[in-house]
Design a protein that fits this description.
Layout: H1 2-21, E1 35-44, H2 57-67, E2 71-79, H3 90-98, E3 102-111, E4 114-122, E5 128-134, H4 138-141, E6 146-155, E7 158-166, H5 172-187, E8 193-198, H6 206-211, E9 236-241, E10 246-253, E11 266-273
Parallel strand pairs: 1-2, 7-8
Antiparallel strand pairs: 1-11, 2-4, 3-4, 5-6, 6-7, 8-9, 10-11
Helix pairs in contact: 2-3
Length: about 280
């Protein structure tokens, strides 16, 4: 009899337990964020070196096509110079050879009877663009005036800023000045930013530390792989500010492109969180 009573009590408790849990909300994990991949590259094309006969624009285009980026930051860009040809615009013509429909050029200074500066190539339509002049003193101290080419494109429904730039190659003090100017540009932008360029300095240098005030880098130590052909120094960089939208998934140096320029291309892939997620 006692066993029967005990069994009834246990059964009643179990039944009550089930009833009390009926209103408990199940634990449901949040939905995975939907992203779209964005592949970028920075590449100092060495002015295409047409005057030396060693390098060519088609060869540079083959490098870019093989890497297949969505956005390319290019430096040492001639536009209608006697060095490459008065009818040659390296950004325009390289974009055409690569099958990239959009490009933007920022003049740094007059050069060889034409212009010289930085540019971006894009597979995406350019929603906005702006050219910036960075401090230099070409006439007074033979310090090349530098530039930054900025575009805005839409990726995954979001506006993404992409910048190409090139810091001075002669003096760390000038590079620090130019890095500070770039930081002020970035501070004025209210969107994710990716910046590619030949910074002419290593990851632990003062100009790079200046850029780290606003921008992240996958390469902050001098153990990073060299980006200048024949050197162990990493002087070409891709930096970014994620704004909680960008996630870096891959980063690397394309060492197979060792003849087309005196710099290796540097590439990265970001996952961009789609809008509405």
């Amino acid at each position: 009899m006692r066993k029967i009573i005990l069994f009834c009590i246990i059964s009643l408790l179990v039944a009550c337990g089930k009833d009390s849990n009926d209103d408990t909300m199940p634990i449901v994990p949040p939905p995975a964020k939907e992203t779209v991949s964005l592949k970028v590259m920075t590449y100092n094309i060495a002015g295409a070196a047409a005057s030396t006969g060693v390098r060519s624009l088609p060869d540079l285009a083959e490098v870019i096509k093989k890497a297949n980026p969505d956005l390319v930051a290019i430096q040492e860009v001639d536009a209608f110079t006697t060095r490459n040809g008065k009818d040659v615009h390296l950004a325009r013509d390289l974009a055409a050879l690569c099958g990239m429909d959009y490009w933007f050029f920022a003049k740094a200074m007059n050069f060889y009877g034409g212009e010289y500066g930085d540019a971006v190539l894009s597979k995406f339509p350019i929603k906005e663009s702006e050219a910036y002049t960075l401090t230099g003193d070409w006439e007074g101290q033979d310090i090349e005036t530098r530039s930054a080419a900025r575009i805005t494109v839409e990726v995954g429904g979001r506006d993404i800023c992409f910048i190409s730039t090139h810091l001075d190659h002669t003096d760390n003090g000038w590079r620090i000045i130019q890095a500070n100017e770039l930081i002020e540009i970035v501070k004025g932008l209210d969107m994710p930013v990716i910046m590619g360029g030949d910074m002419n300095c290593t990851p632990t240098s003062d100009p790079m530390k200046t850029l780290y005030q606003e921008l992240e880098s996958p390469c902050k130590t001098n153990s990073c792989l060299g980006t200048y052909v024949g050197s162990k120094n990493a002087i070409d960089h891709l930096l970014y500010r994620s704004n909680d939208v960008l996630t870096l998934s891959e980063y690397g140096v394309y060492f197979w492109a060792d003849k087309e320029s005196d710099h290796y291309p540097v590439g990265a892939i970001f996952e961009v969180e789609k809008i509405g997620q």
